[in-house]
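Morning - cytidine-5'-diphosphate inputs below, output right after.
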Amino acid sequence: MTTKKRQPIVIAIDGPSASGKSTNARMVAKILNYLHVDTGAMYRTLGWYCLKNGIDVNDSLAVTKACRRWKATLQSSEGQVRLVVDGYYPAQEIRTSEVSAAVVHVAAVPKVREWMKRIQRECAQFGDLVMEGRDIGTNIFPESDFKYYLDAKIEERTRRRAAEGVTENLEARDRRDSQRATSPLMIALGARVINNSEMTAEQTSRLIIEDIEARLKLPRS
Ligand code: CDP
Ligand code: CDP
Protein backbone atom coordinates (compact mmCIF):
# COMPACT_ATOMS: atom_id res chain seq x y z
CA MET A 1 0.00 0.00 0.00
CA THR A 2 1.36 3.45 -0.83
CA THR A 3 0.78 6.34 1.53
CA LYS A 4 0.25 9.75 -0.04
CA LYS A 5 2.93 12.25 0.95
CA ARG A 6 1.46 15.43 2.42
CA GLN A 7 2.14 18.81 0.84
CA PRO A 8 4.88 20.82 2.61
CA ILE A 9 3.56 23.48 4.99
CA VAL A 10 4.62 27.05 4.26
CA ILE A 11 4.46 29.73 6.95
CA ALA A 12 4.45 33.10 5.18
CA ILE A 13 5.87 36.12 7.04
CA ASP A 14 5.70 39.52 5.34
CA GLY A 15 6.12 43.10 6.46
CA PRO A 16 8.22 46.26 6.09
CA SER A 17 11.90 46.67 7.01
CA ALA A 18 12.91 45.96 10.61
CA SER A 19 9.45 44.70 11.54
CA GLY A 20 11.20 41.56 12.81
CA LYS A 21 10.65 39.19 9.89
CA SER A 22 14.12 37.63 9.87
CA THR A 23 14.42 37.38 13.65
CA ASN A 24 11.00 35.81 14.08
CA ALA A 25 11.16 33.62 10.96
CA ARG A 26 14.41 32.15 12.31
CA MET A 27 12.91 31.59 15.78
CA VAL A 28 9.71 30.02 14.48
CA ALA A 29 11.62 27.78 12.05
CA LYS A 30 13.89 26.59 14.87
CA ILE A 31 11.00 25.79 17.21
CA LEU A 32 8.99 23.95 14.54
CA ASN A 33 12.07 22.39 12.95
CA TYR A 34 11.12 23.88 9.58
CA LEU A 35 13.54 25.37 7.06
CA HIS A 36 14.00 29.15 7.04
CA VAL A 37 13.96 31.03 3.73
CA ASP A 38 14.99 34.70 3.56
CA THR A 39 13.69 35.86 0.18
CA GLY A 40 15.06 39.38 0.78
CA ALA A 41 18.52 37.80 0.69
CA MET A 42 17.72 36.45 -2.79
CA TYR A 43 16.88 39.92 -4.15
CA ARG A 44 19.92 41.32 -2.35
CA THR A 45 22.09 38.65 -4.00
CA LEU A 46 20.89 39.74 -7.45
CA GLY A 47 21.56 43.39 -6.51
CA TRP A 48 25.07 42.44 -5.37
CA TYR A 49 25.65 40.40 -8.54
CA CYS A 50 24.64 43.37 -10.73
CA LEU A 51 26.91 45.80 -8.86
CA LYS A 52 29.81 43.35 -9.01
CA ASN A 53 29.41 42.89 -12.75
CA GLY A 54 28.91 46.54 -13.64
CA ILE A 55 25.23 46.10 -14.54
CA ASP A 56 23.15 49.28 -14.15
CA VAL A 57 20.38 48.37 -11.67
CA ASN A 58 18.15 51.06 -13.19
CA ASP A 59 18.31 49.32 -16.58
CA SER A 60 15.46 46.78 -16.35
CA LEU A 61 16.47 45.02 -19.54
CA ALA A 62 20.08 44.56 -18.41
CA VAL A 63 18.91 43.31 -14.99
CA THR A 64 16.48 40.89 -16.66
CA LYS A 65 19.29 39.54 -18.86
CA ALA A 66 21.57 39.12 -15.85
CA CYS A 67 18.85 37.24 -13.98
CA ARG A 68 18.36 34.90 -16.94
CA ARG A 69 22.10 34.27 -17.26
CA TRP A 70 23.43 33.97 -13.74
CA LYS A 71 24.26 30.57 -12.31
CA ALA A 72 22.06 30.73 -9.25
CA THR A 73 20.74 27.59 -7.60
CA LEU A 74 19.10 26.58 -4.33
CA GLN A 75 21.04 24.96 -1.53
CA SER A 76 19.71 23.64 1.77
CA SER A 77 22.15 23.85 4.68
CA GLU A 78 22.21 24.81 8.36
CA GLY A 79 18.41 24.97 8.59
CA GLN A 80 18.06 27.36 5.68
CA VAL A 81 17.31 27.21 1.98
CA ARG A 82 19.55 29.74 0.24
CA LEU A 83 20.23 30.99 -3.24
CA VAL A 84 23.88 30.47 -4.13
CA VAL A 85 25.70 31.94 -7.15
CA ASP A 86 28.32 29.67 -8.67
CA GLY A 87 28.02 27.72 -5.41
CA TYR A 88 28.75 30.83 -3.27
CA TYR A 89 26.45 32.49 -0.72
CA PRO A 90 27.52 36.16 -0.27
CA ALA A 91 26.35 36.43 3.36
CA GLN A 92 28.33 39.57 4.27
CA GLU A 93 28.40 41.25 0.87
CA ILE A 94 24.60 41.50 0.53
CA ARG A 95 24.28 43.55 3.76
CA THR A 96 26.16 46.66 2.58
CA SER A 97 24.42 50.04 2.17
CA GLU A 98 25.21 49.92 -1.57
CA VAL A 99 23.25 46.69 -1.94
CA SER A 100 20.40 48.07 0.22
CA ALA A 101 20.15 51.01 -2.16
CA ALA A 102 20.34 48.81 -5.30
CA VAL A 103 17.95 46.07 -4.23
CA VAL A 104 14.67 48.03 -4.57
CA HIS A 105 15.45 48.61 -8.24
CA VAL A 106 16.11 44.99 -9.15
CA ALA A 107 13.10 43.91 -7.04
CA ALA A 108 10.78 46.14 -9.08
CA VAL A 109 11.61 44.41 -12.40
CA PRO A 110 8.63 42.19 -13.40
CA LYS A 111 10.79 39.50 -15.09
CA VAL A 112 12.98 39.30 -11.99
CA ARG A 113 9.90 38.76 -9.84
CA GLU A 114 8.73 36.00 -12.19
CA TRP A 115 12.11 34.29 -11.88
CA MET A 116 12.11 34.69 -8.09
CA LYS A 117 8.59 33.30 -7.81
CA ARG A 118 9.59 30.16 -9.64
CA ILE A 119 12.72 29.59 -7.56
CA GLN A 120 11.00 30.47 -4.27
CA ARG A 121 8.21 27.99 -4.92
CA GLU A 122 10.86 25.36 -5.65
CA CYS A 123 12.11 25.77 -2.06
CA ALA A 124 9.20 23.55 -0.93
CA GLN A 125 11.02 20.54 -2.44
CA PHE A 126 13.27 20.64 0.66
CA GLY A 127 10.44 20.38 3.21
CA ASP A 128 8.26 22.55 5.46
CA LEU A 129 9.22 26.22 5.32
CA VAL A 130 9.08 29.49 7.16
CA MET A 131 9.47 31.97 4.30
CA GLU A 132 9.85 35.70 4.87
CA GLY A 133 9.64 38.59 2.43
CA ARG A 134 7.23 41.15 1.05
CA ASP A 135 4.90 39.12 -1.19
CA ILE A 136 4.98 35.59 0.22
CA GLY A 137 1.35 35.56 1.37
CA THR A 138 0.06 37.58 -1.58
CA ASN A 139 2.00 36.15 -4.48
CA ILE A 140 4.48 33.33 -3.79
CA PHE A 141 2.35 31.02 -1.63
CA PRO A 142 -1.11 32.64 -1.65
CA GLU A 143 -2.60 29.20 -0.89
CA SER A 144 -0.82 29.08 2.50
CA ASP A 145 -3.08 28.73 5.55
CA PHE A 146 -0.45 30.43 7.71
CA LYS A 147 0.12 34.06 6.83
CA TYR A 148 1.54 36.70 9.14
CA TYR A 149 2.12 40.38 8.53
CA LEU A 150 4.53 41.95 10.98
CA ASP A 151 4.62 45.69 11.55
CA ALA A 152 5.95 48.25 14.02
CA LYS A 153 5.98 52.05 14.23
CA ILE A 154 8.56 53.69 11.96
CA GLU A 155 10.31 55.28 15.00
CA GLU A 156 10.70 51.84 16.59
CA ARG A 157 11.90 50.22 13.37
CA THR A 158 14.46 53.00 12.82
CA ARG A 159 15.60 52.57 16.43
CA ARG A 160 16.04 48.79 15.89
CA ARG A 161 18.23 49.33 12.83
CA ALA A 162 20.26 52.03 14.60
CA ALA A 163 20.87 49.56 17.46
CA GLU A 164 22.34 47.23 14.84
CA GLY A 165 24.59 50.07 13.64
CA VAL A 166 22.63 50.62 10.42
CA THR A 167 21.48 54.10 9.42
CA GLU A 168 19.12 53.90 6.48
CA ASN A 169 16.02 55.79 5.39
CA LEU A 170 13.69 52.85 5.90
CA GLU A 171 10.63 54.89 5.00
CA ALA A 172 11.99 55.51 1.50
CA ARG A 173 12.62 51.80 0.84
CA ASP A 174 9.23 50.83 2.33
CA ARG A 175 7.53 53.39 0.10
CA ARG A 176 9.19 51.96 -3.01
CA ASP A 177 8.30 48.41 -1.95
CA SER A 178 4.67 49.38 -1.31
CA GLN A 179 4.18 51.48 -4.41
CA ARG A 180 5.81 49.35 -7.11
CA ALA A 181 3.46 47.99 -9.78
CA THR A 182 4.44 44.31 -9.52
CA SER A 183 3.62 42.44 -6.30
CA PRO A 184 3.94 45.39 -3.91
CA LEU A 185 4.19 44.97 -0.15
CA MET A 186 0.64 44.62 1.17
CA ILE A 187 -1.32 42.66 3.74
CA ALA A 188 -2.36 39.31 2.26
CA LEU A 189 -5.96 38.20 2.41
CA GLY A 190 -6.35 36.16 5.58
CA ALA A 191 -3.05 37.31 7.08
CA ARG A 192 -2.80 37.86 10.82
CA VAL A 193 -1.37 41.33 11.43
CA ILE A 194 0.98 41.60 14.40
CA ASN A 195 2.12 45.07 15.40
CA ASN A 196 5.09 44.36 17.64
CA SER A 197 6.18 47.93 18.48
CA GLU A 198 5.69 47.18 22.17
CA MET A 199 6.67 43.51 22.06
CA THR A 200 9.90 41.55 22.32
CA ALA A 201 10.89 39.17 19.53
CA GLU A 202 10.21 36.25 21.89
CA GLN A 203 6.65 37.46 22.50
CA THR A 204 6.09 37.90 18.78
CA SER A 205 7.36 34.41 17.96
CA ARG A 206 5.28 32.89 20.75
CA LEU A 207 2.16 34.52 19.32
CA ILE A 208 2.91 33.08 15.88
CA ILE A 209 3.68 29.61 17.25
CA GLU A 210 0.50 29.56 19.35
CA ASP A 211 -1.55 30.55 16.35
CA ILE A 212 0.04 27.86 14.15
CA GLU A 213 -0.38 25.19 16.82
CA ALA A 214 -4.00 26.11 17.40
CA ARG A 215 -4.66 25.76 13.68
CA LEU A 216 -2.70 22.55 13.32
CA LYS A 217 -4.34 21.35 16.54
CA LEU A 218 -1.01 20.12 17.84
CA PRO A 219 -0.06 20.01 21.52
CA ARG A 220 1.68 23.15 22.76
CA SER A 221 5.51 23.16 22.45
O1 CDP B 1 16.65 45.05 5.09
P1 CDP B 1 15.42 44.26 5.22
O2 CDP B 1 15.54 43.04 6.08
O3 CDP B 1 14.27 45.10 5.57
O4 CDP B 1 15.05 43.80 3.75
P2 CDP B 1 15.15 42.41 3.06
O5 CDP B 1 14.10 41.51 3.59
O6 CDP B 1 16.55 41.95 3.08
O7 CDP B 1 14.72 42.78 1.58
C1 CDP B 1 15.49 43.66 0.78
C2 CDP B 1 14.63 44.20 -0.36
O8 CDP B 1 14.31 43.12 -1.24
C3 CDP B 1 13.29 44.79 0.03
O9 CDP B 1 13.40 46.16 0.42
C4 CDP B 1 12.50 44.63 -1.26
O10 CDP B 1 12.80 45.64 -2.19
C5 CDP B 1 13.03 43.31 -1.81
N1 CDP B 1 12.15 42.18 -1.52
C6 CDP B 1 11.04 42.00 -2.29
O11 CDP B 1 10.74 42.83 -3.14
N2 CDP B 1 10.25 40.89 -2.12
C7 CDP B 1 10.55 39.98 -1.21
N3 CDP B 1 9.77 38.89 -1.09
C8 CDP B 1 11.65 40.16 -0.36
C9 CDP B 1 12.43 41.29 -0.53
O1 CDP C 1 13.69 41.10 8.72
P1 CDP C 1 13.25 42.47 9.17
O2 CDP C 1 13.92 43.55 8.40
O3 CDP C 1 11.77 42.64 9.19
O4 CDP C 1 13.69 42.62 10.71
P2 CDP C 1 14.95 42.00 11.46
O5 CDP C 1 16.14 42.01 10.56
O6 CDP C 1 14.55 40.73 12.09
O7 CDP C 1 15.27 43.10 12.55
C1 CDP C 1 14.48 43.37 13.60
C2 CDP C 1 15.30 43.86 14.78
O8 CDP C 1 14.36 44.20 15.78
C3 CDP C 1 16.20 42.78 15.39
O9 CDP C 1 17.34 43.39 15.93
C4 CDP C 1 15.35 42.17 16.49
O10 CDP C 1 16.07 41.68 17.58
C5 CDP C 1 14.48 43.36 16.92
N1 CDP C 1 13.10 43.06 17.37
C6 CDP C 1 12.28 42.15 16.74
O11 CDP C 1 12.69 41.51 15.76
N2 CDP C 1 11.00 41.92 17.17
C7 CDP C 1 10.52 42.61 18.22
N3 CDP C 1 9.26 42.37 18.62
C8 CDP C 1 11.32 43.55 18.84
C9 CDP C 1 12.62 43.76 18.39
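Note: The mean pLDDT is 95.

O.
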